[in-house]
Amino acid sequence: MKTPITDLSDLKKLLPHREPMMMVDSLLDFSEGRATVGFTIVKENIFVANNEFSETGLIEHMAQAAALYTGFKNLSNLQPVKEGFIASIKTLKIQHLPEVNSVLKTEVAIVNELMHLTTVNLSIFKDNIKIANADMNLVLKE
């Protein structure tokens, strides 16, 4: 597979999430330790209230962006795509809640990978302005 990936059926090969819990719609770029993930917020999204994408939605989007990175890496290395979980959120800063029709670009930067635990730094941008960032620990299920 090559980036960018925007086809929903191809994205579903890279992560276990399905509608209505899909919070990513493109893998724009990938390199070892880094990825850029896209997501357009639609009014029907389960995390939209009062025309805004909620804090919970932003956190879930970040976790899925990291999962998309891992899924692409595993599939590229002929390994199975694995389900993962947020083990901890070390830091989280949300400067702005994006509104419906916003296009998000999220930068995934792997800080450390050790067996089934990954530490990742995530930054969400809307119109090239950082609106949220977090450091998370993610655990892959066997």
TrEMBL record:
Gene3D superfamilies: Hotdog Thioesterase (3.10.129.10). InterPro entries: ApeP-like_dehydratase (IPR016776), HotDog_dom_sf (IPR029069). This is Hotdog family 3-hydroxylacyl-ACP dehydratase.
